[in-house]
Design goal:
Elements (H helix, E strand, L loop, with lengths): L8 E3 L4 H11 L8 E3 L16 H16 L3 E11 L20 H11 L9 E12 L4 E12 L15 E3 L12 H7 L1 H15 L1
Parallel strand pairs: 1-2, 1-3
Antiparallel strand pairs: 3-4, 4-5, 5-6
Helix pairs in contact: 1-5
Length: 205
């Protein structure tokens, strides 16, 4: 377990890749800060993400981290897929679209079933991410980012997770998100754009 130091930024994630990405981008505008994953400080249950928006859920996670470990600053993100033909669904329910949290295969199957008969031209969609930097005094900054694309007719590719095998980013014609290398995905991802937007606010503050 890591020891929390004054001035540390706690990142509400157990994902080492996400922690590294957040530290790389936000560290440029927060020099001298150490970014510590919440799982390095204790084994707490995940808070109930019952917000109506990605911002709501990101704040729930960040503020839970502040309450649990007594830090001054916490970063958290929430993201999901928004499909035009489904009026923005699955949205904040992306991880549990089929009922069970994190069942990628079932979620993809339900998405395809919901879009059965919808032509390719009407399957526009986007990944959305909201990243927040919350403070112990209740204030926060947030950045939102998108990755535009469409939903395919069948899964393709072995990289990534979630809806990646069904999502065709506009930035990489002819390849699904699951056919991109980690470096290619990071360069166009919704979280990358959200972090860049948050970093811009921090640089101006």
């Amino acid at each position: 377990m890591a020891d929390l130091r004054r001035g540390d930024v706690v990142v509400a994630t157990g994902n080492a890749h996400k922690l590294a990405e957040i530290e790389e981008i936000l560290g440029r505008v927060m020099p001298g800060r150490r970014f510590v994953g919440l799982r390095e400080l204790g084994d707490w249950p995940d808070p109930e993400e019952d917000g109506e928006t990605f911002l709501d859920n990101a704040l729930i996670k960040a503020r839970a981290a502040i309450e649990r470990c007594g830090c001054e600053l916490a970063v958290a993100d929430d993201s999901g897929l928004m499909v035009d033909a489904l009026d923005g669904a699955p949205g904040v329910l992306s991880a549990r679209f089929a009922g069970s949290h994190g069942d990628d295969e079932a979620n993809n199957a339900r998405l395809l079933a919901e879009l059965e008969g919808v032509p390719a031209a009407s399957r526009g969609a986007r990944f959305c991410s909201c990243v927040v930097l919350a403070r112990a005094d209740g204030s926060y900054l947030e950045g939102t980012g998108f990755c535009e694309g469409s939903v395919g007719l069948a899964p393709r590719g072995d990289n990534g997770f979630g809806y990646d095998p069904l999502f065709w980013p506009d930035d990489t014609p002819g390849r699904t998100m699951a056919e991109l290398s980690p470096e290619e995905k990071n360069a166009i991802s919704h979280r990358f754009h959200a972090l860049a937007a948050l970093a811009g606010q921090l640089a101006d503050s």
